[in-house]
Predict the 3D structure of the following.
Amino acid sequence: MNSEELAAEAGPLLMTVGQAFYFHPDTLDRGKELGLDGFRFYGLGRGGVLGDAEAPVIQSAFAYFAGPLIEKIWNSAREVMAPRDAAREYFECCRNFGRKHFAEVEGLDAFNDAARAVNDAADPSSYALYAGYSAEPLADDTPGQAMQLAATLRELRGGAHIVAVLASGLTPLEAHAMKRPNELVTFGWPGEGPTITDRHRETFEEAEALTNRLMAPAFGVLDEAQAAALVAGAAAMKAALPGT
């Protein structure tokens, strides 16, 4: 497969795996220990790689969330804990999730080699959350590192997707209404959402294709064996997720 096809196949797997720790009970428990509920630990922990920024900066990186909701959870959460400290705690939860659930998954050393190559080759320009995640030191153990790499490459695809959505002429709210139509209120938007037409849906498909094109250069550094290891490792981790 070519690099765009690889991005299209591996990207959704990495998205699913990389976000699996966000609201896992162990992550929620750690947040409570730190004085943060699940949503605030998610917001401060995930966005904390950007430092002690103002809420609009965080919303610009998250994009799919409404600004007032981000302002509420971000400002209240950073009263409890410094954002950079929360980010490191959150990335530690990511590592611990990998250690707990992927210790018996085969092929992760090869996955890690391939994922690190993609991470090293990726251009972080305009992908603020990815830039922050990719600057964090990775765990030394194989399953923990695999999970952290999956979470980091998830942010790569997420950043590329936001750029692609905007470049295609959609608003984040329109894209969100098509991607997660039943979760608008959860993300802080009005429940009724915008009116979606066939043209919106066609444009969203164009944005998905552009996302893969934007990711292609980073995935293009892999040879055939590395590409296979990346996809196989991501698929194996997805199969090992709790509840699957």
Remarks:
- The mean pLDDT is 96.
- The chain has one domain: 3-240.
